[in-house]
Structures are given as C-alpha cells and as structure tokens.
Amino acid sequence: MLPAGADIGGPDGYTRQVTDALPDLLVPTLGADTRAWQYGDPGGAPMILVHGFRGDHHGLDLLAREIARRSPGVRIIVPDLPGFGATPALPRRIHDLNLYGEWLREFALQVAGDRFAILGHSFGSLVVANSIAGGLAPSNVTLINPISAPALEGPQGVLTQLATWYYRAADALPERAARGLLGHPIIVRLMSEVMAKTRDRELRSWIHGQHDTYFSIFSDTGTLLQAFQASVSHTVVEYASALTQPTLLIAGDRDDITPLPEQLSLRNRLLDARLRIVPGVGHLVHYEAVDHAAAEIHSFLIALSTTGERA
Predict the structure, then answer these.
(1) Sequence-ordered list of residues with C-beta below 8 angstroms from that of 160, at least 6 positions apart, any chain
(2) Rounded alpha-carbon distances, angstroms, from residue 144 to 90, 158, 233
(3) What is the pTM of this model?
(4) CATH code of the domain covering residue 65
(5) Engineered SS bond to 211: which of 51, 105, 178, 215, CB 3.0-4.6 Å?
(6) Which domain holds residue 297?
(7) Cα–Cα distance between 143 and 162 in angstroms, integer?
C-alpha cells in the first residue's frame, strides 16, 4: 500500500494530510540561492534533511512530514542540493564532495545556528559526513542507507561501472542531446525497477512515478556528472573518525548499493552509533519504509533527550 499521506493521483504525488508545510526558504549560500522547504514547529529545534543523488526535496517530503507528526517540537528543513531541483549549480565551482560539504556548512549556519540535528540519505550521507569532517557540528546525526562501501565493489558494481560509462557518454554530447539521454524514460524506469524492492503494486507504481517526475530535474549535465563522480568516489567510512556525535544508522537488509555487513562495519567504526535494520527493503527506505524510519528517528531523539545526551 502507499505510504501514509501519499496520493498517487495528486499533481505532485503527495497530499497535505500529514502536516501542513511552513513557508519555503530562499537562502543565499556560496553565491547562489538555495531553495529549502520547512515542516513542523516553526519555533522548534532545527533538523536538516539532505537528499540523495539526482533527487530533490520531494524524495524526503513524506519522511519530513512523518517526523514532524511524530516529533512535535522539531522544525525540519529540507534543501535542494546545488544543481538539483530548484537550487542552481554554484557559480564557477567544481561540484565535488568537498564543495557539497562546504555548501552544507554554510547553509546550516544560515538556517539553524549552532544547535541542530542532521539527516542524510544515500549521497546525502556522504555530504553530511564530509561536512562534519570539515567542521559542521550537529548535535546528532541520522544516516539512512549510508554509502558505506565503494560503489564499484558492491553487489551492483557492474551496474555502477555501466552508469559511469553512461554519464561519461552523456558528458561528451551537446547539452540538449545529453539531457535526452540522461532523462530517457527507459533508463529512469530501469533504475527505479532495480532499486524498488516492494511487491506492493500500488506502492511500486507510485515510486516509479516519483522517479519519472523528479529524477531528471538538474541544472546542467556537467554538474550532474561531477556530482555522480562524487557519489561513487567516496564512502562514509572515510569520515568515521569525525563522526563523534550520537548517530543513528538506518539500513535496508536488501540494499544493493551497500550490503548489510558493510553497514555493521560502519557502526563498529563510529564512536556512538546504533544501527536499525529495515527488513525487506533496499536503498529506498525513504519511500518504502517511511513509518518505520520516522519511528526510529523519533525514538532516537527521545532517547537522547531522556538520557541527557546532545539532542
């Protein structure tokens, strides 16, 4: 069945049943305006959610709403990464992981001050980890489907290599032809079919619709290629020593990008981490297990506040 609050027939794939969104933001960040969306308590403790590669804030919309519903007192902020969704590429910059980490530090300073929680999904986990290693200081961290193993060495390593050739081929084409290749419906659907693990036909159809609608909203193909290279060239493990905050890891036991043993290894490398495994789900926890993930995040935040840790 569909996630709570979803409406497959809606113009943007979602309804406003879970919680009304606060006014969205336009935040000057490193020479461009970052577009961000807010949910929950306008005076609540800030929590920044960072989406994955080729996505935008829509991918975390349901999760943001469900966290806000379960955790009243939290103000959730979900930006579009530079070069994706409604945020333009940063001028005259190479969009490597260091750039995204720098961007996140500046964005957090602008919207959240010096006390906030942070969450990253997939590529967003790399952005969060890199940013923390560079000085970002959240009070606690949640990583969903963190990239904990080299992409070219995982169970889908061959597909990753094919994707690398695909992006390089697109980069050699004129912009219009490259966009046609990168956003080709068959390619997008193939990716979606591989990643979705649910057997629920309605939910699976809704996931495909989300990817069809939002997977190809990027500023330009050059930036997209740079971001792809960043996404397959790093792991959260590189930054494990910097992740000293209380950390919640949420992983699907069928994730093709990072196998479960690698998530267990990451947990053991972190100073203060707990791993929660979602059965029957792969890399799309934020679509296929919204309630499960939000419940784990709520329990994590409550536990920190109850024990007096940095909530």
Answers:
(1) 151, 152, 154, 232
(2) 26, 23, 19
(3) 0.90
(4) 3.40.50.1820
(5) 215
(6) 21-307
(7) 27
